[in-house]
Amino acid sequence: MLQTLQKAVEVLSLFSPTHPEWTVGDIARALEQPKSSTSELLSSMAGQGLLRRTGPGRYRLGWRLLEFGQTLLKTTEFRAEARQVMEEVVARWGETMHLAVLENGQVIYIEKLEGTHAVHISLSGVGARLPAHCSGVGKVLLAYAPWSEVAQILEQQGMHAFTPNTITTPEDLARELDLVRQRGYACDQEEVSIGLCCVAAPIYNFEGRVVAAMSISLPTHRFQARRASYVALIVEAAQRVSENLGYHRGMPRWAMKR
After folding, report:
1. Each residue of 102-114: pLDDT tens digit?
2. Can you tell me the distance from the alpha carbon of 148 to that of 179, in angstroms, rounded to the nearest whole number?
């Protein structure tokens, strides 16, 4: 049963926006499995709604996965707490806000709200993934993970340069993560997209463990003009969510002296 479950997960992991449809033969070759057993597995997964047939021997992801995803989002406690705070911030400031977690070495966005002044950010929709080394939320999530885990992630994922400003060496990233821990927030200064900046802060649970990161994203010129205000804004917002989850350490001193 465990082997079957593992194979099913491997099958699901093959599907992506750039490769949304697979044949039985392609999947068998990708997983280095016999075509007959692969066909049987895919048929079973389709019967459970995890896959759907689009033609003879052809499959796409099934709609039941969307149902699972909606259930996950609706029952994730910190997401519900964060969304309320995010809605208040977006209504007041009009900028884009994100909520993200770290999964399998990548940032996955689990909430996104756009405001009236927001720029369109195509890379960060709900469910989208990005490498962790280049974004504000990613730096926050890496900063509070053991370095051994971070090093393993970098080895597996690499450090792709999205722009000339992207950090591309483990040494530079280690120094950056030290600053994140000291300050209590992280910045992305045109490291994913030229003209776009963001600032992010950690969300703690009642055990004092970082479970997510929240960010606000905006054009570079607006961020540079009011950097201190946006930093204080996101730190306070993340602190509110953390306190709602039972975390009660006081605000960082620098954020209280505005």
Report:
1. 988 889 888 888 8
2. 18
Beta-carbon contacts of 47 under 8 Å, excluding residues fewer than 6 positions away, are none
Q: Where are the alpha helices (DSSP H) in 57-214?
A: 64-75, 77-93, 136-143, 147-157, 170-183
Planar angle of CA 10, 14, 20, nearest 5 degrees = 145
Given a cut of 70, whether residue 117 has pLDDT beyond it is no
Element (H, E) at 130: strand 129-131
d(CA 133, CA 107): 9
- Please count the residues of the chain: 258
- Average pLDDT over every residue of 3-24: 91
Q: How far lies 108's CA from each of 46, 124, 126, 151, in Å?
A: 26, 8, 8, 19
How would DSSP label each residue in 206-236?
A: TTS-EEEEEEEEEEHHHHHHTHHHHHHHHHH
- Percent of the chain past pLDDT 90, that is, above it, reads 60
25: which DSSP letter? H
Q: How many CA atoms lie within 13 A of 225 on its CB side?
A: 5
Torsion angles phi and psi, residue 212, rounded to 5: -165, 175
